[in-house]
């Protein structure tokens, strides 16, 4: 059978490849007022995050919250900002993670897999990165929200934005999304190793590990969101992997927003209670729901929550960093990607 050649005027197409698009929450472009306002407006206008009807929420958001909050949030970001690179720590770490994972994928698949990252809010935008991947020849895209525990306000909204980006493409790539990995043995091992390393290096071994997760309204749990259950299972698996009992570890929730009842206990209140009522003077805090250190860990935990503990009589406070781009974490994320690419490339 003769080989049919393309017409002379046929457009050149890039060689087909597979895209792996890593997604995290996002970051403002700067801690100044207007970049902060744009970022907060996008974030707090997301119906997955704040599900109050627009007619109630938007006047409050636009006229009150976004008038004041960019100043306070900007100061918080300024205190942790990577001034050398002109970006937030979350951006720096996500870039480093992407570079490390890309090297792993190149070692495994050569140039058949393209790795990049996007942010749900702010830049680089999901739509722009999907467009780049399609233009580069990606006929299949694996979308990986970097949230170990699934929540509607994190994993789902990231997926929503990815699907919206696909709607803009004339020739849509095949698509897959990576599910939550809260009980992945490699992830639990990496968490446990980070705890063991931090404890071994501490001047004084902590008496209690506070496992702090980002909070959410209690109502979301009642409406079927599995986040709370997955957080509890992560803590249980971490405890079992460390060989500890219940007296050595506890679960809390941070970052409460608004007047609605959120998942309890609240980290900022619980660490104070532990010091004041239980006599816990030496604690460590870890935040397994975050794949990279960010405003909620570097500022909220390391400053606000630490101050709450110390003001209540606590003495030694140890924050254990997120897994970030350490080798064990990169190995876990790379293995999860490889598992989810099966059937597309082997």
Strand order, largest beta sheet: 2-1-3-4
The CATH topology of the largest domain comes to: Rossmann fold
Number of domains: 2
Give the averaged pLDDT, no decimals. 95
Strand content: 15-25%
Question: What is the fold's blueprint, element by element?
Answer:
Layout: E1 17-27, H1 33-44, H2 54-80, H3 89-109, E2 113-122, H4 126-135, E3 138-145, H5 152-167, E4 174-177, H6 185-201, E5 208-214, H7 218-222, H8 227-242, E6 249-254, H9 267-276, E7 282-286, H10 295-311, E8 316-320, H11 327-341
Parallel strand pairs: 1-2, 1-3, 3-4, 5-6, 5-7, 7-8
Your description of this structure?
The protein is α/β, with parallel strands linked by helices. Helix content is 48%, strand content 16%. The protein has two domains: 17-181 and 327-341, Rossmann fold, CATH 3.40.50; 185-320, Rossmann fold. The strands form two sheets. Strands 2-1-3-4 form a four-stranded parallel β-sheet, with helices on both faces. It has a four-stranded parallel β-sheet with strand order 6-5-7-8, with helices on both faces. The model has no long low-confidence stretch (mean pLDDT 95).
In summary, what is this structure?
The protein has 346 residues and is an alpha/beta fold.
